[in-house]
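Figure 6 in text form: structure in, sequence out.
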């Protein structure tokens, strides 16, 4: 989908760092500027103005943000861009400290100020902020057939290692009506796949007076013509209710896929992290999910090296991962973040020990992922084509797509060969599996049956 505007004001380009939640914020700012007549380009070399949307969740993310800011300051010095703005979580967390660090930046845009991006760029008085439920039309930066749909912002979970409540604030859910309206607009643009995101999608609606819940939202999204796939990302295990499980199982449009970060499996660690679940809860939950949907794909995140983690507790986590066999698992080492409760906890685990534990889990999961993927070989799956790679005259294009069990950006891909277009949904037989990616051949596409009849 082309996002270039025909209006000729200044040309603005965005650099979006971090998670899909930040990407949606970027798309909202792009939409606001586009509606005001600015030319939006994805090519920063063509831009007069660059806006960097930053992440500050972890120290490594802040270092990446600093490096990108430095890169564009150098471009401003030599005249390749005229103005530079920094938005997102970094200004929200660091405030005026950034002014001293980067005096050549023209303006800093906190999360609360993103709705006023036009006024900030134009150095005009700010208008009343746009609420979470009244949003400008987005300009999608993803492929035209897939989009992230943010249903809430902020978080009330207060995990002891996490800065999100400090950066994003408490849970603020969008109204059910505003989400459905946006989903309909996306469907009218040709979006087939919606990936629902929030800091915790299972908390959706807890703060609203009429108390809608995620199952209710899913049912209404399934009624929208044009939407074919709906996927849940960032689901806290404590919020995955029996009603939600049955809703996912019963509705064909909802992908049998859940991204549910568990962070750990051992009870003392879970309590210190303030996760509000136990190992036994996690065992029961995985059993319920797989009993209701034997084909479900489970993705999770685990943390090693949390303060006080003993060798025995790590071995318990290692055994839990080995026996549970998640389809996808991301392991990372604990990052000591100032401003979190965990930062002041005693018994901080040495980095070398945490790194060794992390590598051990990643090695274990590589074998599990290969085994889980290998079970798909010979079976037929629905797949969506994300892009087409042309290979020269007389050769069939390479199709890069995904099954329902592969989320965009974070999971592997499915590689096929054939004459199809991006955005088409097909049936494919899996012929070969790797640790992350799948390979297959086209079986048929929905239009084939109609043509035969």
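Output sequence:
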């Amino acid at each position: 989908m082309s996002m270039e505007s025909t209006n000729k004001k200044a040309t603005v380009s965005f650099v979006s760092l971090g998670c899909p939640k930040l990407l949606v914020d970027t798309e909202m700012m792009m939409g606001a500027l586009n509606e005001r007549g600015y030319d939006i380009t994805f090519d920063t070399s063509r831009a007069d103005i660059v806006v960097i949307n930053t992440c500050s969740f972890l120290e490594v993310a802040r270092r990446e943000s600093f490096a990108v800011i430095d890169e564009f300051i150098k471009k401003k010095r030599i005249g390749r861009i005229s103005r530079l703005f920094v938005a997102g979580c970094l200004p929200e967390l660091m405030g005026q400290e950034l002014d001293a660090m980067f005096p050549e930046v023209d303006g800093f845009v906190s999360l609360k100020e993103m709705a006023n991006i036009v006024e900030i760029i134009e150095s005009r008085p700010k208008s009343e902020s746009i609420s979470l439920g009244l949003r400008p039309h987005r300009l999608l930066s993803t492929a035209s057939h897939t989009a992230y749909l943010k249903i809430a912002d902020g978080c009330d979970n207060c995990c002891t290692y996490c800065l999100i409540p400090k950066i994003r604030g408490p849970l603020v859910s969008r109204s059910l009506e505003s989400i459905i309206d946006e989903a309909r607009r996306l469907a009218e643009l040709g979006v087939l796949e919606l990936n629902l995101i929030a800091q915790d999608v299972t908390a959706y609606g807890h703060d609203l007076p009429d108390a809608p819940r995620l199952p209710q939202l899913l049912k209404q999204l399934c009624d929208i013509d044009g939407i074919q796939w709906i996927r849940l990302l960032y689901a806290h295990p404590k919020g995955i209710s029996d009603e939600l499980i049955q809703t996912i199982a019963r509705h064909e449009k909802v992908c049998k896929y859940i991204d549910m970060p568990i962070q750990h499996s051992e009870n003392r660690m879970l309590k210190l992290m303030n996760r509000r679940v136990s190992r036994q809860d996690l065992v029961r939950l995985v059993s319920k999910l797989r009993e209701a949907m034997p084909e479900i794909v489970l993705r999770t995140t685990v943390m090693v090296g949390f303060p006080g983690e003993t060798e025995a507790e790590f071995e318990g986590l290692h055994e839990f991962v080995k026996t549970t066999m998640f389809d996808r698992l991301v392991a990372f080492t604990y990052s000591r973040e100032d401003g979190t409760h965990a930062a002041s906890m005693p018994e901080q685990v040495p980095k070398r020990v945490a790194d060794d534990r992390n590598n051990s889990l990643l090695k274990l999961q590589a074998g599990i992922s290969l085994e889980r993927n290998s079970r798909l070989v010979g079976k037929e799956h629905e797949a969506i084509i994300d892009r087409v790679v042309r290979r020269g005259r007389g050769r069939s294009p390479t199709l890069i797509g995904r099954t329902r069990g592969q989320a965009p950006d974070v999971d592997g891909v499915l590689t096929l060969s054939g004459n199809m277009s991006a955005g088409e949904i097909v049936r494919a037989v899996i012929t070969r599996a790797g640790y992350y990616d799948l390979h297959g051949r086209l079986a048929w596409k929905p239009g084939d049956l109609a043509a035969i009849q």
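Caption detail: The first strand starts at residue 11 and ends at 16.
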